Design the sequence.
C-alpha cells in the first residue's frame, strides 16, 4: 500500500501548481500532441501520447534493459498522464504504480487506465521523487523519462530509487548534459547504493526537440488560442531558451541496478555522509 502523502515543501507546491496548470491546459486541446507527432514522425508512439522525448526507440530500450517478467511490479516516476507505464503494463503484463507531483496529471492518468489494463493492474498517486510513499523493495523496475533533473533533491531521489527497488532490480532514467561537460552522476549513483549497468546515447533526441521547438514557434497563434497566453508564453520561452543549446546537447539513457546478494555498492570514502532522504 502507498503511505499517506507527505506535505510538500514550498518549492514542491509551486511545482505542483505549475504542472497542474500545464496539464489542465494541454488536456483541453490536441494541438500539443499533434506537434509532438509532427516532430517525432514515425517514431511517435501515438497511443502513449508522450509530452517528453519518449519515442519508439526509447520504448524498445526500456523493454530490453528492464527485463520485466509477467506479474512483476513497475514504478513510473514522474509519470505525467501515464502513457509510458500503461503501455508497458499492458504489453508486458506487469503491475504498474505511477507517481507524479501533479494531481491533475494523476487524475488524467487514472482516466486513461481502462483503455490499457484492468483497474487493479495500475494505480496512480500524487507524491515526490524523494518521498514516493511506496514500501521498501517494492519494485522490480523503475522508469523516469525526462524528469529526474527536476527533482528538488537529486541525491535523495536516487536514494529513494534504491529503497523502492528490489535487490537486482533495474531503473532506466533519461538524462541530458552539455557535450563538453563531465558526467556528474557516477558518485551520486554510488552513494545511493546503485550500480550503473549501461549508458546509452540517444543521438536523435536533440534533433527532435529542435523540430518541436520550431513547431511551437511556427504555431504560436494556435497555441495561444488553444492553451491561453500564459501556457503559450511558457512554451515559447522554453523554446527560445533551449533551441540555441541543442547543438551542444548530449542525451543519454542510464540503466541503474540495485545490487543483489553479496554484490554491493562501492563503499563511501571515509567521512563522506550518506545521501539524505
Sequence:
Amino acid at each position: 500500500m502507498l503511505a499517506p502523502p507527505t506535505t510538500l515543501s514550498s518549492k514542491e507546491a509551486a511545482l505542483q501548481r505549475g504542472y497542474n496548470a500545464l496539464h489542465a491546459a494541454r488536456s483541453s486541446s490536441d494541438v500539443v500532441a499533434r506537434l509532438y507527432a509532427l516532430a517525432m514522425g514515425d517514431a511517435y508512439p501515438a497511443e502513449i501520447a508522450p509530452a517528453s522525448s519518449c519515442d519508439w526507440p526509447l520504448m524498445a530500450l526500456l523493454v530490453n534493459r528492464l527485463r520485466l517478467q509477467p506479474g512483476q511490479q513497475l514504478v513510473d516516476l514522474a509519470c505525467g498522464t501515464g502513457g509510458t507505464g500503461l503501455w508497458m503494463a499492458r504489453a508486458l503484463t506487469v503491475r504498474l504504480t505511477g507517481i507524479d507531483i501533479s494531481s491533475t496529471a494523476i487524475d488524467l492518468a487514472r482516466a486513461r487506465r481502462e483503455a490499457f489494463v484492468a483497474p487493479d493492474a495500475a494505480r496512480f498517486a500524487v507524491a515526490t521523487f524523494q518521498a514516493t510513499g511506496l514500501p521498501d523493495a517494492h519494485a522490480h523496475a523503475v522508469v523516469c523519462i525526462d524528469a529526474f533533473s527536476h527533482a528538488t533533491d537529486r541525491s535523495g531521489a536516487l536514494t529513494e530509487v534504491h529503497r523502492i527497488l528490489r535487490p537486482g532490480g533495474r531503473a532506466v532514467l533519461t538524462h541530458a548534459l552539455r557535450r563538453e561537460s563531465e558526467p556528474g552522476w557516477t558518485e551520486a549513483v554510488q552513494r545511493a547504493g546503485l550500480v550503473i549497468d549501461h549508458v546509452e546515447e540517444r543521438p536523435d533526441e536533440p534533433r527532435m526537440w529542435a523540430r518541436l521547438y520550431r513547431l511551437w514557434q511556427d504555431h504560436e497563434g494556435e497555441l495561444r488560442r488553444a492553451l491561453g497566453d500564459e501556457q503559450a508564453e511558457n512554451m515559447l520561452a522554453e523554446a527560445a531558451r533551449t533551441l540555441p543549446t541543442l547543438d551542444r546537447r548530449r542525451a543519454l539513457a542510464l540503466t541503474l541496478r540495485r545490487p543483489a546478494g553479496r554484490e554491493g555498492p562501492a563503499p563511501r570514502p571515509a567521512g563522506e555522509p550518506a545521501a539524505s532522504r
The beta strands are 73-77, 95-100, 122-126, 139-144, 165-178, 195-201, 249-257. The first helix runs from residue 10 to 27.
